[in-house]
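Box 3.1 — From sequence to structure: CbrC family protein
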Amino acid sequence: MTELPKFKYQPNALELGIIEKKNIYCPVCEKNRDYSYSGGIYAVEKVEYICPWCVADGSASKKYNGIYIDDASCEDVSDQSKLTELVTKTPKYVSWQQENWLAHHDDYCSFEKYVGWKEIEHLKENLSEDIERIKSEYGLSQSEFEQFLVNDGGMQGYLFKCLHCDQHRLHIDTN
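Predicted structure (token representation):
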């Protein structure tokens, strides 16, 4: 069996269902594959399934002149090649409105998992800046934030981790 590609900014894609075990015919490499990425690509042509290998090597992005993550929803980093890798070689996570990719130490963070308060309570201090920003943006008290942030609930959390230190980052989305 061929080993699945590794995604620098999306290390848990299989565990999170972003890459799934599903037999497909990949229109990019023109091979039958046992795994599929079906999270979508921003392109003119509608594409249902792409194999993870064609996502990872950038060939699907090139073929369809598309991106997986909207570069306007990514925090800024100084190295343009990091943005290129993120938007053309990284499968996006599923969000209700618009995925938002966070950065730290002038690099994009890896997307770790979908979370609610109970999954991140132990990271409260580590996430304090993001928690305060989110509470301010949504006009929430700490107790409201804790109550409303529920995995698969009305306020969904997206947990990221810096590739260079132990700092976690948090983005939320509401339905």
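Summary of the box: The chain has two domains: 1-94, 96-175.
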